[in-house]
Design brief:
The protein is about 45% helix and about 15% strand. With about 425 residues, it is α/β, with parallel strands linked by helices. Strand 3 (about 45-50) and strand 4 form a beta hairpin.
């Protein structure tokens, strides 16, 4: 694989379809397209053309649009062929392009070339990847915020502030006797750096909420055996996902369903009933239930309305809602946040509404901060640590070095510094043709 190869791929949906869009990018994209379809006089204009094979026979009729460099998605010469969406048409076009020594693009290669040619930075590319995979309205909104460059501007601005602060410090070190250099940078620099650290820390506090929108709000359904955990999962999914019996210990593994609630992806996990047991397989299921508990954003602790609490230790710092089940058959009612019946559906809408409200409040609290991925959080934390070292230091040269390292960490988020090893991983998430 060479960077100067001309590549092609299907950029529309899977075939057969009403339309197939085949994208070409690279130095020979326009010349090869003109061999197929004839001259293309004006860029970014759609021309109805008859495409012909190398032997002169008609291949198809469709629209051809050229995007000369640098005004294209990849920054290279690009062409789009809008053809009839049959597998036979696409396969024949592929054959003709291969005969011209063009190469089928790898996953994400168009976007990777856009990054390399300065059309995208790494944060925008990640946002584009998230947008392509968005399944809910809030995932779409979060991806748009990231892909439109707003988040990149924030990180780039922070890196510039650190670079400016370092320049002032080094000016004082090198030119302390000059009249045009301030005598002390403590007031003009360190107050600004302190404000910047608080802004980074605020972004860090919002990152988990952003991950919730992207990866799903995780709800763990836990409780003793036979309290209705699997029945609740089936009722929420409106289908039989989990096996339900009266035999304690039926659920051995973790099952989950994904629901779109109010535009948010909510992932419900059904876990094994937690109790003392000698069964090896059931013990493994209980161990996995505890792992789900540790990663959950919300715990639904289920118990029969005639029973007391399940009596096992719950993780700290995770909200726990006590849910009474089987309310249709209850003779007495114990204290709980919500009472439900998976059999009749009573209380399920109340439960869903409460979850939507909970996730919405978290989103509204951080929506303007445009939080990033876990990768962003790790680099932001590292930058914050370097800034803290600079603020607590006493030697200007060492403090300046800490600020330089902090700026580099911010640069790694947008791809400005030393991220070559990340590119293959990130762009492998893309589909072919994007």
């Amino acid at each position: 694989m060479r960077a100067d190869d001309t590549i092609f791929a299907l950029s529309s949906g899977s075939l057969p379809a009403g339309l197939a869009v085949i994208r070409l990018s690279g130095p020979r994209a326009i010349s090869v397209s003109e061999k197929l379809a004839g001259p293309l006089p004006l860029p970014r204009h759609a021309y109805l053309r008859t495409l012909r094979k190398s032997d002169g026979s008609v291949l198809d009729r469709g629209l051809v649009i050229s995007f000369p460099a640098p005004n294209s998605f990849t920054g290279e010469d690009c062409v789009e062929l809008h053809l009839h969406g049959s597998r036979a048409v696409a396969a024949t076009v592929y054959d003709e392009l291969v005969l011209e020594n063009l190469r089928l693009a790898e996953a994400g290669e168009f976007s990777k070339r856009a990054l390399e040619n300065g059309k995208l930075d790494l944060v925008e590319a990640e946002g584009l990847s998230d947008l392509l995979r968005a399944e809910t309205e809030m995932q779409r909104r979060l991806a748009i915020e990231q892909s439109d460059g707003g988040l990149s501007s924030v990180y780039t601005g922070w890196a510039f502030e650190l670079t400016r602060a370092r320049a002032l410090i080094e000016a004082e070190l090198d030119f302390a006797d000059e009249d045009d250099v301030p005598g002390s940078v403590s007031d003009s620099v360190w107050l600004s750096v302190g404000r910047l650290k608080r802004a980074i820390d605020l972004q860090l506090s919002a990152t988990r909420s952003g991950e919730i929108i992207r990866d799903g709000y995780q709800v763990a359904i836990v409780g003793a055996p036979n309290v209705g955990k699997s029945s609740l999962l089936n009722a929420l999914a409106n289908k039989d996902v989990a096996i339900v019996t009266e035999i304690a210990g039926t659920t051995r593994d973790v099952l989950h369903v994904d629901l779109d609630l109010g535009g948010f992806l909510v992932r419900f996990f059904d876990t094994a009933g937690i109790r003392e047991t000698t069964d090896v397989v059931e013990k493994e299921g209980i161990r996995r239930a505890h792992l789900v508990l540790e990663r959950a954003d919300l715990v639904l602790l289920l118990s029969d309305v005639d029973e007391t609490s399940a009596g096992f230790e719950l993780p700290h710092a995770i909200p726990v809602w006590r849910i009474n089940t089987k309310s249709d058959a209850a003779t007495t009612r114990t204290l709980a946040d919500i009472s439900i019946s998976a059999k009749t559906g009573d209380g399920l809408d109340i439960l869903k509404s409460a979850i939507i409200k909970n996730v919405s409040e978290r989103w509204e609290a951080i929506a303007s901060l445009k939080p990033g991925r876990l990768r962003h959080a790790q680099l932001l934390q590292s930058a914050s640590n370097f800034i803290e070292e600079a603020l607590e230091g006493s030697q200007l040269d060492m403090q300046a070095e800490c600020l330089r390292l902090a700026a580099e960490e911010l640069g790694r988020i947008t791809g400005k510094v030393d991220v070559e090893h990340l590119l293959d991983i990130i762009f492998s998430e893309f589909c072919i043709g994007k």
